[in-house]
Amino acid sequence: MQSTGQAAPRRVGARQDEIREAALTLFSERGYHGTGMEQIAAAVGLSPSSLYNHWKSKQDLLADIMVATMEDLLAGFAAVVDPARSATEGLRAAMDAHVRYHATHHREARVGNRELTSLADASRERVRGLRQEYATAWQQLLATGVEQGEFAEVSPRLTSFALLEAGIGVSQWYRPDGALTLDDVAHEYAEMALRLVGSRLT
Amino acid sequence: MQSTGQAAPRRVGARQDEIREAALTLFSERGYHGTGMEQIAAAVGLSPSSLYNHWKSKQDLLADIMVATMEDLLAGFAAVVDPARSATEGLRAAMDAHVRYHATHHREARVGNRELTSLADASRERVRGLRQEYATAWQQLLATGVEQGEFAEVSPRLTSFALLEAGIGVSQWYRPDGALTLDDVAHEYAEMALRLVGSRLT
DNA sequence: CCTACCGATCGGTAGG
DNA sequence: CCTACCGATCGGTAGG
Question: Which of A113, A117, A196 sits opposite B29 (nearest CB)?
């Protein structure tokens, strides 16, 4: 929780960010248990013991990374989905943001999706709660579209699971220097989402 | 590779299977690097050193599990997709099998999707090759449907990524004692697949 | 299949 | 921010 809600004037140290960044890369490549504090230290040019001047523990680094990831996804959803507009526009915007996030944050996506069981109880429950919040927001968006007759009679639950998972998968294959631009991919997936729910406003 | 291609008359020991089973459960719960040989031994009531009478190494257990998983998925696809039938029937059958596998093998799905980087070079390349083979089979199935005008003009690559990922996701939430039966889920996802490609034969 | 044990590495602390 | 070091645990082997 060191990266959010810090109203104190003393800003977060650059070294702290540097260490977090190195940990994020290594956790995503080798997994939490496959990464040693010594490797993180080597990546930033410090001795292992010096890391503890910036972070309480290895576990704290993981918790900060995973909580921030879910908060970013939730903030992204809230920023682009306007409840005053149609469910079609909401779904298009949500899928666009969801895919953009995963295409540009493959390290966060990888860690977020494989290390839930590596978290200590308290932070695991916190991350689980945020994930549930995100899933519920999607499900409600789809339920609204179905109720208002804007979407076909699909299952909001199954459809939201399928769309979320498909979007997360983008983090596994998207490359900035590939044939498809970020705009292309985000647009294609948003169109897929509207096709899957059978939106009548497209 | 101890579970496949064993033409020798001496059959695979029950103990070997027992150990593999325990390793699969533990790897899926705590990850490969988060699991110790001592925990696997405790799960089957042996001392850690006795495991080495049945398996060469911890790494060998992981390789066997991950290779077998991909071979099962490929065999499942080949068993249900009949090239003589329509692309629509092929996609329906492929998605049905894909979802059934993931709903009933959540441990294998979890390990398969998070431990690729924990594999030693040789087996990692082997698993990567099998994954590529599976992805290509799906992509070709979709390309055929598009070429023959049976599906809409979707991107076989992106659509196959989305469908594969959505189906894998089922392993994360499906419960045998839940509201939806295995048949329900497999059927719903197969319908989603046909809707996503805009099949004209439904 | 076990006891006994190997060197290596783990996350983290003491003390300055 | 470093050196020096802690106890614990790691995967694996020797020998019977």
Answer: A117
